[in-house]
Specification:
7 strands; elongated; alpha+beta; single chain; seven-stranded antiparallel sheet
Length: 225
């Protein structure tokens, strides 16, 4: 199965602003930097339920996914469907366990859990009156993000250029036309073999774009004392 997704996010533009007062600020030299960053990240994630144009952050509660195509699988489940106007929800509820910058190595390491992520798409067979739904429960997440630095007007801006993440749900529940029972009885195999790589790509690209949107506006000097 092949899942291709087009995600709707703001486009990053490099024009520096001060860190808004609703975001927590840390000092690179403070002894409890890791703890401060963890609290700052959790605070920032909780604000993803509303757009903040000043720092290029959209409302991701939910995140609009304009197109999604699921290509043909193999028996006993063979699916070939295209969806439009999907919504992916759950980013704003992430519980962060690790959020650490390595300023020398130019990396950001993140770990945490999404209590629930939900993908909903209008079902074309019902003219959009019903939804195809995928719900992931207790999703453990880990990721390593690599960035580059660019100087502009004496300020250091960062741009994330590569990343690798992993996602593992405790449970996946599918409401998918006539295939519910077959898929849900074999949800782990179905998710890992048919969906995981592409779903990981969706989450990965979404997070990278969110980070790049934010750090295209807020320099390292503004983000950290």
């Amino acid at each position: 199965m092949r899942v291709t997704v087009v995600v709707c996010l703001l486009v990053a533009s490099c024009a520096g602003v001060a860190l808004p007062p609703n975001f927590q600020k840390c000092n690179r030299n403070q002894p409890d930097l890791k703890e401060c960053l963890l609290k700052a990240a959790q605070n920032g994630i909780s604000q993803l339920t509303r757009a903040d144009d000043e720092v290029n952050i959209p409302n991701v509660h939910p995140l609009n996914v304009s197109e999604l195509f699921i290509g043909a699988g193999v028996d006993p489940v063979a699916v070939d469907k295209e969806f439009k106007g999907c919504k992916l929800d759950g980013f704003h509820n992430m519980n962060v366990d690790k959020f650490e910058f390595d300023f020398e190595g130019k990396t950001l390491t993140i770990a945490g859990t999404f209590p629930e992520q939900t993908l909903e798409c209008p079902d074309e067979f019902t003219n959009g009156t019903e939804l195809v739904t995928i719900v992931l429960k207790n999703v453990t997440f880990s990721g390593l993000f690599n960035y580059e630095e660019t100087m502009k007007d004496g300020k250091t801006f960062i741009n994330f250029v590569s990343s690798k993440i992993n996602i593992d749900p405790e449970l996946a529940v599918f409401h998918f036309d006539f295939f519910d029972e077959v898929i849900n009885d074999n949800w782990k195999e179905f998710f890992n073999e048919e969906m995981k790589d592409d779903y990981v790509d969706v989450v990965n690209r979404t997070l990278v774009q969110l980070f790049n949107n934010f750090f295209s506006k807020v320099s390292l000097e503004e983000a950290f004392d």
